[in-house]
Amino acid sequence: MRFLPVSIDTFEKKILILGGGYLALSALKSVLDTEAEIYMIADSFTTDIIKKSDESNGKIKLKEHTLEKDFKFMGFDYVLIATEDFELNEALEKRANSRNMIYQRFDIFSKSLMSINKSIEHGPLTFSLNSSRLNPTITDIIFEDLKKFSEKYNLEKLNILSEIRSELVRKNSQNIDEIIRKLYESETINLSTFLEEMPQYKIEDLESSEDLINHIVTGEELKVEKESTLEDDQIIKKNLDDAKNLSRDKDLSNSDLNLESFHDLDKFKK
User: Fold this and answer.
1) I need a surface site. Which of 76, 94, 147, 172 has the fewest CB within 10 A?
2) Residue 152 DSSP SS3
3) What is the largest CA-CA distance in the chain?
4) Distance, CA of 16 to chain centre
């Protein structure tokens, strides 16, 4: 596998497309739904590119400028080389390489440093298809199948499971992956109820999560402990009491611990 499937950030990024013909239009379509600003430079542009620019509310910026082999470009995050001139693309690729720029060449793959996948975004999920070794018609057929496949996932369920996972992480729970898988596969548990109930209890591992699940589904008595609801002062008193019980000094008090010296630690609280 030459190209490792990864996701690159397009937020507040600038993409430069060199070219204004049909290859450039293909390059434009591949990044049209990203959050990047798109700059296109070419001798002239097809009517389709001009139309997309007019409809983009400023996202796509066009500049007519003669592209020659020594054309200098910099200040962009990603470069798409897509003129109709093979030799010109070769020269532009060499310049991108010499400037250590992340680029893709659209007439041939050559030494392109990235390959933009055909992608579908479905809520928090992104499905992508790398079509570099397929003809466009077959790619479109497979992509339509992928689009139907993506729609089977319930977005509300996925979002609730993400919130549950965040709460489990906050609790430093063990077996988080197993808990999430069990919740995902369960057909009886109400995930919203689990999310509402779980902050009250110590969900420390798979066993304690199953205890809460069984309580919600069947009404079984809970064995899992409740989370502490003590206020800070009560927690300090409880800790002092515990310390007294463990210490030989039964007259231990706040003043003995010189707690004032620790007041500055408040600023380290998250």
Assistant:
1) 172
2) coil
3) 89
4) 24
Burial of 136 (0-12, 13-18, 19+ CB in 10 A): exposed
Q: Could you identify the residue written with the tokens 């079509």?
A: 131
Query: Do the Cβ atoms of 175 and 200 come closer than 8 Å?
Result: no
Gap between the Cα atoms of 119 and 142, Å rounded: 12
The single residue listed with the structure tokens 């489990």 is 168
Instruction: Tell me the residue type at 164.
Output: I
Q: Where are the beta strands (DSSP E) in the chain?
A: 14-18, 37-42, 60-64, 78-81, 102-105, 118-122, 125-129
As a three-state string, the secondary structure of 194-236 is HHHHHHHECCCCHHHHHHHHHHHHHCCCCCCCECCCCCHHHHH
Q: Would you write out the chain's pLDDT as a tens digit for each of its 270 residues?
A: 778 888 889 999 999 999 999 999 999 999 999 999 999 999 999 999 999 999 999 999 999 999 999 999 989 999 999 999 999 999 999 999 999 999 999 998 777 888 888 888 888 888 988 776 667 788 889 999 999 999 999 999 999 999 999 999 998 999 999 999 999 999 889 999 999 999 989 898 999 999 999 999 888 888 888 876 555 566 566 666 666 666 555 555 555 545 555 444 444 443
Question: 178, 206 in Cβ contact below 8 A?
Answer: yes
Residue 116: burial class (beta carbons within 10 Å; 0-12, 13-18, 19+): buried
The answer to whether the CB of 183 falls within 8 A of the CB of 163 is no
Pairing of the two strands 78-81 and 60-64 = unpaired
Within 10 Å of residue 186's Cβ, how many Cβ atoms? 13
Q: Cα–Cα distance between 252 and 7 in angstroms, integer?
A: 57
The predicted model scores a pTM of 0.69
Tokens of 260: 């004032």
